[in-house]
Amino acid sequence: MENIIKDLDIISPEQDASCEAAPRISVESNTGKARKLYIESYGCQMNFSDSEIVTSILHENGFDTTADLESADLILLNTCAIRENAEQKVRHRLKHLVGQKKRKPALMIGVLGCMAERLKTKLLEEEKIVDMVVGPDAYRDLPKLISEADEGQKAVNVFLSREETYADITPVRLNSNGVSAFISIMRGCDNMCSFCVVPFTRGRERSRDAHSIVAEAQDLFDKGYREVTLLGQNVDSYKWESEDKSEKVNFAQLLERVALVHPDLRVRFSTSHPKDITDEVLYTMKKYENICNYIHLPAQSGNSRVLEIMNRTYDREWYMDKIRSIRNILGEDCGISSDMIAGFCTETEEEHRDTLSLMEFVKYDYAYMFAYSERPATPAAKKYTDDIPEDVKKRRLNEIIELQNLHSRERNKRHVGKVHRILIEGTSRRSENDLCGRNSENVMAVFPRGNYQKGQYVNVMVTDSTGGTLIGHIVE
Ligand code: SAH
Ligand code: SF4
Ligand code: F3S
């Protein structure tokens, strides 16, 4: 099976395997600060983006960063709790760090992010080597928590905030190729999908000041970046109001403001929720060439009963109508991707086949696909039994993956024989002589280097495709 998703915890659109990978760990910075921070991120892009905020805070408070675990004075793991195996991964990592701490007793270890928020002080009891547990809204408190830990106390702050957006903090770009960056536009989630831990780990939804978002996009453009991705769990419910209430900005309006920063700045966004995405957003996408023709619109299931007990608040018909609107307004070419969960509580074979048939209807360009993993204290864990046997979940998941692979190949074929505008992101992993970058629909293309470099736009004639990549050459 080609292109099978091995790492089910990496869930947000990220760089294709054929392109230079963005680092998940901190990069080296040597500005003569007293101590070294090593930070490693798990989970979604929101977490990666938060690690950039954490690094910024600690740069101001006596830390340089390092990519070398051995030379670190402080190790931070920014963790994910979305599925059981996401947490397992962190537990294994912590076991691995035990030896490290024995060799260097002054070494401090902190757990940040969603797993920290979910487990709180329990994490200190269960994982003895952890010195600090810090939730996603408490990063400004890190310098204080570090000094507490310096004095030998275990330090914890897991308060969730209704206001914190870190709007004034300029992130230190860790996960970036210098071309494409993420901008967090909101935090938290108010949706309460029954399977999901995010509302508990990230708290209430809040939108960041629109001016600070536009200023960040402008600053990135001035520094040579050519693509920004606006991030939120549910970007369509972005809603910001100025303090004097004279200015109100919804997501479509924000998108327009960011698109107006410069025609050469590509704008992407993630994630859209099927219940909230509006035609206004679709028309704004159509109006601006530099807003990419790509929407991540997670369905989760193709069956209305399952969607109802998932508390997604839309049904199959509603979802299909949204797809029709996208096709009507933005055309057949608009890239669409999804998230799917196989084997949610009580899902029957027939209901599973509805997911497959919805996929046939949409023909997604790409999808992130998962077996249901029960998360303690979520509404689904309280109300329903996780009753689909593991082997059945796996089989259903594999059917979903196989069908998606077929669709990805089919959809990518439509790009062959056409010229695409590609933003060069870097050197191809497979060959030093090739460059790589995406088209507007978010598909990665690989092509011989010529005299070009990352950050430039080129026209690429696509001559071949696979399920994951387009192959071509630059045309003048
Ligand atoms: N806010 C986004 C996604 C956040 S989590 C949205 O609403 O779509 C990313 C994906 O992880 C979800 O879309 C879902 O497909 C998956 N996921 C969340 N909780 C899960 C669970 N308990 N088991 C399996 N997959 C899960
Ligand atoms: Fe979770 Fe649903 Fe919120 Fe997405 S919209 S983060 S799936 S509760
Ligand atoms: Fe993201 Fe995982 Fe938290 S998906 S929001 S890091 S639970």
From TrEMBL:
Reaction catalyzed: N(6)-dimethylallyladenosine(37) in tRNA + (sulfur carrier)-SH + AH2 + 2 S-adenosyl-L-methionine = 2-methylsulfanyl-N(6)-dimethylallyladenosine(37) in tRNA + (sulfur carrier)-H + 5'-deoxyadenosine + L-methionine + A + S-adenosyl-L-homocysteine + 2 H(+)
Keywords associated with the record: 4Fe-4S, Cytoplasm, Iron, Iron-sulfur, Metal-binding, S-adenosyl-L-methionine, Transferase, tRNA processing
GO cellular component: cytosol
Domain of life where this protein originates: Bacteria
Enzyme class: transferase
Residue ranges of every copy of the MTTase N-terminal domain listed in the record: 35-151
UniProt main location, coarse: cytoplasm
Gene3D superfamilies according to UniProt: Methylthiotransferase, N-terminal domain, tm_1862 like domain
Cofactor: [4Fe-4S] cluster
Domain TRAM: 413-476
GO molecular function, one term: tRNA-2-methylthio-N(6)-dimethylallyladenosine(37) synthase activity
UniProt domain Radical SAM core: residue ranges: 175-410
Amino-acid positions noted as binding [4Fe-4S] cluster 1 in the UniProt annotation, renumbered to this chain: C44, C80, C114
Chain residues that bind [4Fe-4S] cluster 2: C189, C193, C196
Enzyme Commission number(s) of this protein: 2.8.4.3
Compartment(s) of residence: Cytoplasm
Cofactor binding: number and manner: Binds 2 [4Fe-4S] clusters. One cluster is coordinated with 3 cysteines and an exchangeable S-adenosyl-L-methionine.
HAMAP family in the cross-refs: tRNA_metthiotr_MiaB
Family assignment from sequence similarity: Belongs to the methylthiotransferase family. MiaB subfamily.
Functional note: Catalyzes the methylthiolation of N6-(dimethylallyl)adenosine (i(6)A), leading to the formation of 2-methylthio-N6-(dimethylallyl)adenosine (ms(2)i(6)A) at position 37 in tRNAs that read codons beginning with uridine.
Subunit structure: Monomer.
Protein name: tRNA-2-methylthio-N(6)-dimethylallyladenosine synthase
Organism: Flexibacter flexilis DSM 6793
